[in-house]
Amino acid sequence: MSEHKVIDACNTYCPGPLMELITYMKQAEVGDTLELLSTDQGTANDVPEWVNKIGHEMVDSEKVGDVWHITVRKAK
Amino acid sequence: MRILIVGGGTGGTIIANNLARRLAPEITAGTSRITMLSASDQHMYQPGLLYVAFGQMMPDELYRKQKSLLESSIIFHVDPVEKFDLENNQVRTKSGKVHKYDTLVIATGSRIMPRKIPGLDEGSETFYTEAGAVSMFRKLREFEGGKVAIVVGVPHKCPIAPVEVTFALDDYFKKRGIRDKVEIKYHYPINRIHSIENVATWAKPEFDRMGIEYETLFNVEEVDAENKIVKSMEGSEYKYDLLISIPEHHGMDVIEQNELGKDGWIPTDRYQLTMEGHDNVYVVGDTTNLPVSKTGSAAHFEAEVIAENIASIVKIGVPVNEYDGKVYCFIEAGHDKATYANFNYLNPPDLKPANKSMHWFKMSYNKMYWTSVRGLL
């Protein structure tokens, strides 16, 4: 059964939100969704670029207050 | 209070020494006790490995006897923990001894996992172990020209190391007079050349000036060691003559075996540094799952907060401080110059131009570390 995991990468500069997503993506199973929380303004562009290049699936991207919620499904 | 510290690296050692001083009256009175369990009787200064890889330090300069770094009131055993029984506040060691505690500190650190990537172990050099750093120096010394590739796994200890090793390679080949025969190509997992935006902004023109090529969004999938080709998950590949890798890290095996955290990273409160669901268990340094750099510096600043809080709980029953995410990293920039990144959860690093003073400060710190880990600096 697929899992949904929330990754809190708010207010972090190193290793940063996309590195956190890559770390947890390695731990996830195909079909799992990861919701990345980030206050870094670049994340909204950085994550889709990596996700599209590597072949995972963007599920959602929205900004709630100061926090981006970016949801990705592991596709392979 | 019985305080048990598992792990004798930077974080564990600073906590132990800091606590031994803060709780000296309680230890003398017999109401508090500090015990450390470690897998080794040696303490390694891990940042020195990068210098070993370039022949600038000898391996034996990196070690001190762990016992010599500890306050005399600390009980120290070389007897690694095999079983954590958090429900009953006790651990069991390799020798079979059971240690009960009131407060536990887990400071077991991390390790490289080159075998997670097919071919990486056979096909690359890495400076993250003593044997690896010595082997890398031998390979560099024999190298007469060709393509050098740097690749980076996620997550990894010392996030500044990828740019440092790249600057050092440029420096090394220039000093040998063969830089014009060497192509250096840097590969990085995300879409800029360093995770810290200010570092990326600073390093990019430096790379351009040094003629270092770079490719971003490159996560290693496989190394064809026989044909010397490194391939990425993103679909690109590079044919190399010498591959330098910073492998993916995991926490220690004992953490995974005891199911304390996936891949050996323990879920940790980012401010209190307690293990989630266990208020009497603290986690420090690489062992945490925090979105914070895995560096001795982070471990040092976390350790000071943990020691202050354990001591205040002994004395007044409550913690008094929170970790603010502080990290301070030297950045060796080659040509005897360095700069630094200083940041916390709320303030990004403001990078200054590299200069010789910072390099010599870092060289001094390589010796001053032993004072720092004793909790005196």
Structure description:
The complex is a heterodimer of chains A (about 80) and B (about 375). By secondary structure, chain A is of the alpha+beta class. Chain A has a single domain, classed as Translation Initiation Factor IF3, CATH 3.30.110. Chain A is built from 2 helices and 4 strands; from the N terminus they run βαβαββ. In chain A, strands 1-2-4-3 form a 4-stranded mixed beta sheet, with helices on one face. Chain B contains 11 helices and 22 strands. In chain B, the strands form 7 sheets. A 6-stranded mixed beta sheet of chain B has the order 5-2-1-9-20-19, covered by helices on one side. In chain B, strands 13-12-11-17 form a 4-stranded parallel beta sheet, with helices on one face. The mean pLDDT of chain B is about 95. Classes of the chains: A alpha+beta (about 80), B alpha/beta (about 375). At the A-B interface, helix 1 and helix 2 of A face loops of B.
CATH class category of the largest domain in chain B: Alpha Beta
Task: For the record, give the distance between the C-alpha atoms at the N and C termini of chain B, rounded to a whole number.
Answer: 26 Å
How much is the average pLDDT of chain A?
A: 94
CATH architecture of the largest domain in chain B: 3-Layer(bba) Sandwich
Strand order of the largest sheet of chain B: 5-2-1-9-20-19
Major sheet of chain A: size, sense and barrel closure? Answer: 4 strands, mixed
Largest beta-sheet details of chain B: 6 strands, mixed
Secondary-structure element sequence of chain A?
EHEHEE
β content of chain A, as a range?
A: 25-35%
Distance between the termini of chain A: 16 Å
User: What sort of overall outline of chain B do the alpha carbons produce when their principal axes are compared?
Assistant: globular
Helical segment count of chain B: 11
Residue runs with pLDDT of under 50 for 5 or more positions of chain A? none
Arithmetic mean of pLDDT of chain B = 97
Q: At the fourth CATH level, what is the homologous superfamily of chain A?
A: TusA-like domain
